[in-house]
Write a structure and sequence with these properties.
Structural class: alpha/beta
Helix content: 25-40%
Radius of gyration: 21 Å
Order of helices and strands: EHEHEHEHEHHEHEHHEHEEEEEHH
Strand order of the largest sheet: 3-2-4-1-5-6-7
Distance between the termini: 29 Å
Oligomer: single chain
Number of strands: 13
Amino acid sequence: MTAARDERLPVSIITGYLGSGKTTLLNRLLQDPGMARAAVIINEFGEIGLDHLLVATPAESTVLLASGCICCTVRGDLVDTLRDLDRRRRDATLPPYDRVLIETTGLADPVPLLQTLITDEVVAPCYRADGVTTLVDALHGAASLDEHAEAVKQVALADRLLITKCDLAGEAGIADLEGRLARANPGARRLRVTRGAIAPGELFGATLEAAGATRWLNENAYVAAAETFPVPEAPSHLERIRSHSFLIDRPVTRAGLMTWLSLLASLRGAGLLRVKGLLNVEGAPLAVHAVQTVIDEPVELARWPDEDRRSRLVFITRGLAREDIERTLAVLEIDAGRRTPRGVLDPQAYARFVAAAQGFR
């Protein structure tokens, strides 16, 4: 855990269900002078790739994966591609780039892709995840969310949600869609977009540095969404995704945090789509990020982003109620305890751990 500046290149994921406008968005983004140094990976489903012919970027800066979905069957190809890009950048056989954009297929599950960026021993030292942007079609998005699990997961994992084709849909339909998206993922910033027109600064630059940590966490949105958008009595496929936020008044211990993260991943990971946290760990601000069973290494910030010293946690879950998570939080306060002369853990500390860990049952 370190407060040093992260020098790895940012990787931004652009996803969304079939026909949501990903290629249109990418084309518009790459017309911006600020994106001139972006490398682009386009993942296509099928034997013949077409999107690379539609994207306005130099061929040498574009990589097409045409062997399947980027976040399942071609995970190895993605690792090789990112490694090759980094090698070619370093030996100057590729124009220098300062970020990577990945456009996924419409059927992509973003979880394995995020997990690769976090854990792969080749990729993680060179690249860092810079957020997930998910596009939702204002005309057909509601139906996609009702019928397709992939579309729901894309929304749940998003840092930013773009509602596209707003010029073709009515205001009432767009507002209803926004409410549904807010219930499922309140922390994601929602933006209306027409024909892919949006400034890159609105999408990129997610950071765990102190200046951006509050925006990255955005825990106030969870409280506001719970009050403004109540869950329907008969929830649809999308509304089965729940969001929860927690505030912890007292500092947590380092031993408690690491134990909690380990238990969380192993015993609750399947129901946790995403977890973000800014925790007061024995007085120091630490940012925590998890994607299902994979926990990113906690990052110690150089300073607190504001005057609030409480720990803040937000969750996007599937099949986990608020009380299921709340019961686990006692583990955050356990201490390592002292050891006896024989090296045995203090019995009282062990008893406290056992009592706290009951919440994971």
